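[SOLVED] Predicted holo structure with flavin-adenine dinucleotide

Edit: marking solved, answer below. Original request kept for reference. I posted the sequence and ligand SMILES and asked for the 3D complex as structure tokens.
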Amino acid sequence: MPLNIIVCIKQVPNPEHFDKITLDPSTGTIRRAGIPVITNPLDRHALEEALRIREKFGGAVTAITMGPLQARKSLDDALSMGADRGALLCDQMFAGADTLATACVLSGGIRLLGPFDLILCGNESADGATAQVPAQLAEMLDLPHVTCARKIDMSADGSKALVERAVEHGFLRVEVVLPAVIAVLKTINTYRLPTVLGIMEAAGKEVHQLGCSACESTGMYPADIGSIGSPTRFAGISEAAHLRKVKMITGDPQDIAAQLIRELRYRDAL
Ligand SMILES: Cc1cc2nc3c(=O)[nH]c(=O)nc-3n(C[C@H](O)[C@H](O)[C@H](O)COP(=O)(O)OP(=O)(O)OC[C@H]3O[C@@H](n4cnc5c(N)ncnc54)[C@H](O)[C@@H]3O)c2cc1C
């Protein structure tokens, strides 16, 4: 049975440049200007899983993102990796969204894309890292969901997924009937890199750009999206105090080791 799979992809600031991130003290939102962006790494694992399922069952993989126009680059990357089409949910009305408003827009966009069998997400983003969006999305679409997925095995007819869900010191095996939302961990697979052919083919694939008015036709209300629809309120920021002290130890390796042991014993005794 061919499967229609949606993969939710978020563009995030590159973690290698997190030291350059500052927050707007009045709104609590990230100042992104000038910070290089990448596709959220876990979302690449979600896409890889979708591509592997499509290779086995046939069907189509759609990458969807809510973000500014520059988020199109993450969709292009997904198309180069092998996704069949992309959807960019982009509108001024979507700005300032918390996780609930983000999930609301994603659910509207996904409804617009038509029937689907499976939605794959990263388990959390590298920046917001709340891990709330997949569960909220499932709730809004009235679907079952499984988070922390480290392995997905599809039933032979593609109607169910047997998921290994990581928990502390082990895993749970969960069977879920599709359609469902599954959020994956990085241990689920090693994702492929785009090939030259993939990059060339991506140019011919379609990317739908959908705004607020299109999503409204699915029953999404402007009052539920963007900053207006975000019940989370920014309450304040404080800078973490750095208590670490640096002491340089020099000498030959034996001296360094002896001094280090003395220093650690001294600290331990404090
Ligand atoms: C008051 C407030 C205002 C905010 N304003 C802004 C703002 O102006 N701009 C801004 O960028 N952020 C803003 N944020 C942060 C915003 O809430 C989160 O970036 C966003 O809702 C996703 O949450 P998360 O990153 O924790 O996702 P998680 O739940 O950790 O993400 C899990 C998975 O969900 C999927 N996912 C998450 N977000 C998206 C997306 N946008 N598109 C597609 N898939 C997605 C991905 O598969 C991802 O791996 C604001 C937060 C608050 C509290």
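OP edit: The chain has a mean pLDDT of 94. Thanks to everyone who chimed in.
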